[in-house]
Amino acid sequence: MNVAIVGVTGYSGTVLWRLLNQHPNIQRVNIYTQQSDLTAVSKQFNWVSDQSINVFKFDIADIMTNNDAVFFATPAGVTGGYAAELMNNDFPVIDLSGDLRLKDPAQYKKWYHQEPNVSHETLSKVTYGLTEFTAATATYIANPGCYATATLMGLAPLVQERLIDLNSVIVDAKSGVTGSGKKLSRATHFVDVDENFAMYKVNQHQHIPEIMQQLREWAPDMGPIQFATGLLPIKRGLMATIYAKISDEVSDVDDVIASAFRATYMDKPFVKIMDNQIPDLRLIAGSNFTAIGWSYNPVTRVVTVVSVIDNLMKGAAGQAVQNFNKYFGLSETAGLTQLPDFV
Amino acid sequence: MNVAIVGVTGYSGTVLWRLLNQHPNIQRVNIYTQQSDLTAVSKQFNWVSDQSINVFKFDIADIMTNNDAVFFATPAGVTGGYAAELMNNDFPVIDLSGDLRLKDPAQYKKWYHQEPNVSHETLSKVTYGLTEFTAATATYIANPGCYATATLMGLAPLVQERLIDLNSVIVDAKSGVTGSGKKLSRATHFVDVDENFAMYKVNQHQHIPEIMQQLREWAPDMGPIQFATGLLPIKRGLMATIYAKISDEVSDVDDVIASAFRATYMDKPFVKIMDNQIPDLRLIAGSNFTAIGWSYNPVTRVVTVVSVIDNLMKGAAGQAVQNFNKYFGLSETAGLTQLPDFV
Amino acid sequence: MNVAIVGVTGYSGTVLWRLLNQHPNIQRVNIYTQQSDLTAVSKQFNWVSDQSINVFKFDIADIMTNNDAVFFATPAGVTGGYAAELMNNDFPVIDLSGDLRLKDPAQYKKWYHQEPNVSHETLSKVTYGLTEFTAATATYIANPGCYATATLMGLAPLVQERLIDLNSVIVDAKSGVTGSGKKLSRATHFVDVDENFAMYKVNQHQHIPEIMQQLREWAPDMGPIQFATGLLPIKRGLMATIYAKISDEVSDVDDVIASAFRATYMDKPFVKIMDNQIPDLRLIAGSNFTAIGWSYNPVTRVVTVVSVIDNLMKGAAGQAVQNFNKYFGLSETAGLTQLPDFV
Amino acid sequence: MNVAIVGVTGYSGTVLWRLLNQHPNIQRVNIYTQQSDLTAVSKQFNWVSDQSINVFKFDIADIMTNNDAVFFATPAGVTGGYAAELMNNDFPVIDLSGDLRLKDPAQYKKWYHQEPNVSHETLSKVTYGLTEFTAATATYIANPGCYATATLMGLAPLVQERLIDLNSVIVDAKSGVTGSGKKLSRATHFVDVDENFAMYKVNQHQHIPEIMQQLREWAPDMGPIQFATGLLPIKRGLMATIYAKISDEVSDVDDVIASAFRATYMDKPFVKIMDNQIPDLRLIAGSNFTAIGWSYNPVTRVVTVVSVIDNLMKGAAGQAVQNFNKYFGLSETAGLTQLPDFV
Q1: What domains sit in chain C, N to C, each tagged with a CATH number?
Q2: What ipTM does the predicted assembly reach?
Q3: CB–CB of D343 and A287 under 8 A?
């Protein structure tokens, strides 16, 4: 198969390009760019790689003609303009941007602070590709956000099986700096990040609505969640620490929680359930794994669930490849065999 | 005045020694040690300092004879053996260890995993020195733990004025590695900490009982709190992120919270109230300041309070000096004028 | 005394402002700025400081009327325009920028890549303020660059006493990121610095000519030096590792080197001579100290001298205060008593 | 093929185990250990890997019977005891330890501070496996040290073609903390490494004699080198910065250097020659690449060569696999296709 990438210069795009080049079922990766200087884009990749770098001017028709699928790792506001055309041609898309994740354009406007450019109808045809929870998918797959992935995976069994008070969820999430993108900013200047920890976008992160949308599919009466995000002085890795009150009617809580997590993630090759052990970021950084552990406190009846991912892998490029694998009926782990860097 | 330090080789002791040497009301700082090699202790300090280093063999009578007060920065299990004697002599003590913070010896045994060696009666005579909340103090002052300081300061107005559901408190706290002490361990080896974030002692941290003890003094019907701690890949700084549900009867929540914090910390020279702005660690690292900000979410009625301190200053040595200043009726800021390192 | 600062928003300016505020001989620090929004400048400082922040519109006459001295912590290209006027009025200036360090305008053009705007005559009246080596100074003091300070202090006894082959000097210097200034750049983005070490400006750093100028004052036949700089993934601290061949005629090399360093820096309160021990950055970071150690290899006859400073203290603001103290005949350590942060 | 690893718990061993498991020509990796608790060793690896973990009690006969080759990633002092037996059986060995690198046991004693336990004769049969420079190899391969690899690769063309004064070489090398091994020590405690840079073992590093031994094979009249090592506050990556005077007889220096490097490393799949561009650590960290750049200064006639590797890959486990590939006539890049982590 040949695949196209649009938006290869950001962190997610770079990791994605690397994964696709090593993918056993992919013959050729074509880079499409709206930048005029194709050589500059090519140069970003060729410094130590002998793999051929194929860079073309962005052209939606060309993409569909010469490829079997396209990955978009573009900023907010780009994919909306092409979604309908791609759908009409039944052309497989994995969209890493947030543009088509929310079914309700009003939510998009509220959380992304820009006008939506996709219709209700187009949005309704999109699959939200949280891979462990999607079966057959549409041709257009919205790859979930990094915070959404870790949070939803940590909450899924608890919400689906109503083990918790649906109005009690509090998420304290933290991410490495690649999660903030490659653009220069005061908040990501070395001197401002190093030896610091800073919270940002408390209750305002744009991944909140996609989390709520998915939770409400699982439990329509799901209450609002409390959601905070923090910036760790590291490059890669994301932890969602989730607090929730266990429902009064649940007894044998430890066993019930363990069974729920084990049943939900049975046979999922990228999920490691750690029971009463709290995973740290090193355990998964560099890999496509999600590790989930928890601690139940019988005194407060609060369960603390910790869900960790690599924000660029399971939180972006890795899950995109996993979505690709599922769509084309390949082995779910194809091209994703890399173990964590952990020594 | 002359003051004694016991336990100067740890992180808190080192910072304390430095602060006391710069203190305008202190003439001489005497180091007492149970190590046999006094020169080795002296050598730790003399490399760039021209200040005279006075090291003596530990001797409780000698301490009382030649000093006006003693600071203990010793590990758990040391001060208990000397507390009664020091009290009987009305000798002023600032004890940075956790040995005399808990009024109930059974709690000490449960959380410190060792036998208490202090009687109920002795414990009853100790002042828990959370400086912003103590008036006249006893001669024996138990300097609060770092997590306890940040958490209690962030919760005080909310609990004292019952603005929150007393059964809803969840604390997600994080600290730099100096908080784990100077002893070598796998968990504090550079390779294990760098580029990582790890939670530890979830619901098991030994500062939990002193937090509960103080909260119940403020509100006897205070419910248990949920308390997690994490290790940041930095040296210094501690953040307590506190989540609590605002009581149903409270209206004008934003104003009420702001008024409560402002009233509580009015005229407190080391507390900065930031209202709807979340402080980060850089803001206070290196100084004795506590900075507190919050964000109220009307959808969930949860308030997120963020309280940050330098774990070695306000969380240990700085507050110890503040306790000393208060006890002797000095200016509260004497010897503590250092601004944050922040550039 | 009242003093003025121009250029307070950069890293050096911020540290300088803090030092001057704590200075026992300074009553009032006035900030002058060319930015139109004075409140914005004020806001940078008032968040945890109760010290009054005095911000004025930049006006050279106003500065001279209301202050006893002025510190410039401005970028290259600013001070040249005001130097002559300030000199004509005998007004004391400590200039942290590189504009008046080089006596030869052609050198300035070559290394700073911009047209010099100061005359030969004006330049000739400037004192190059390497404090340990200046006696009576002119009113206009050019505060040395950070790399120049560490390198010159490490080389001084060896060159002055001609203990080394004057054509054999190689300097491998490294600095923390604050040395690169506050401006955002790809090279100082957290993701690019963290877990990396990068050399830059090999043989092209603008501090090379001021080093050569000073070395040639000490030894007119001094040969060119090899000079490389690297960016460490830390905030503060600078190490100059200096390699030089010991002259053939020198015997008892270890003793001769030790004597030379000890004699040169005898009675210098901010210099710590460590003999055969190599100082690391922690030893001095946060303080105004320079620590110097060395290792002589009899097999190669090469001496490795390591000279470490805090780039914002002895490398900028600290030495500026030291220059101020010397000019006004104050104690050299006034306002500079801060010990290293080292725990 | 089946391969054995002895010493899998250290950093090099862990990375090696991972590489061998992904190696296309290896069917099974057997771990041999002298620890009694085999399960503990197994547990280190099975947490996120579904790959089978085969752990056996260390037994040299068993190793030779059930494997096609053995890798030793053991501390100094282990392999010497087995080398002769393995050689007598013509059993292929890749030895990552330093025990058999030096031909002269007296040198071993001097630099490793322990008695050599290998005879001159046994040592004479060992191939020093600097892969880019070895042709047919013996069965026993001594895998070079990390500092030796980077330094020798940066010096090879200059020494082999005598482009430099053979008595002028100065190496200023720096490494990440994994280079110091997994054992806890004060020097590798997080608080001591973070925000610091420390030189260590100046002129005393045990890789110096293997560098000299190899350089003297290339140029018997090679003079001693000056060699310093420093500890960077990062996990992985090593830079050797090499200074040397270009010989007086060389003209067209830039061209001559470039030609020499290009000719030496032509067709070497893991070497990237960057000419007048200085590589940083990010460029190669995580991969088996060596990147080499330089800058020639016509004023001093000194060339600065910078050679960077990942200390655990090309500096240890990666080169070990490369040696394995070469020995068995496999593609040199088999199992080593991983690109740098760089984003």
Answers
A1: 2-144+314-327 (3.40.50.720), 147-311 (3.30.360.10)
A2: 0.95
A3: no
